[in-house]
Design a protein that fits this description.
By secondary structure, the chain is mainly beta. It has 1 helix and 11 strands; from the N terminus they run E-E-E-E-E-E-E-E-H-E-E-E.
Length: 160
């Protein structure tokens, strides 16, 4: 999640907020990824060349990940220059991201549709982030909560 968060930085997570409202694009969330995500890239169905992973593996990992939601249920999504293109609109105004570079995951022009009750996650360090592009959207039930502030180290205390 660099540059938003540094490795080892600690966050506060609101575990109750999504009992009262739906997650939305832009939220930084802590969640359990699909099984296989913690080992790198394991998609539930083999994506076509130039296509993000459209389905996660069936199992839920015990690991905790933190990423930013970029698309929700029913949205169409592709990736251009490391930026999500959601419902045909490129979200290029993302000042919190590092440039993507020339990695294959920076451009995935084939469009997928996010399944019902699933959310597509991307890290802010787009060129070096293992995220939903590789292991698919995350079911809402696997979202633990929204990260809203940092508390460690002391020189990085603040709101996200």
């Amino acid at each position: 999640m660099e540059p938003t968060l540094d490795v080892g930085q600690r966050v506060l997570v609101n575990r109750f907020v999504y009992h009262f409202k739906d997650p939305k694009a832009g939220d930084v969330v802590v969640f359990h990824p699909p099984v296989g995500a913690d080992n790198g890239t394991e998609c539930g169905v083999m994506p076509k060349p130039g296509e993000p992973c459209s389905q996660p593996t069936k199992g839920e990992s015990s690991q905790n990940f933190i990423k930013r939601i970029v698309a929700g249920p029913g949205d169409t999504l592709s990736v251009k220059g490391g930026h999500p293109v959601v419902n045909g609109v490129e979200k290029s105004d993302e000042p919190y991201t590092n440039p993507c570079g020339n990695a294959a995951a920076c451009n995935m022009p084939r469009t997928i549709t996010i399944p019902p009750d699933h959310y597509f996650m991307m890290g802010d360090n787009r060129g070096a982030s293992d995220d939903s592009r590789f292991w698919g959207p995350v079911p809402r039930d696997w979202i633990i909560g929204e990260a809203f502030a940092t508390y460690w180290p002391p020189d990085r205390i603040g709101f996200l």
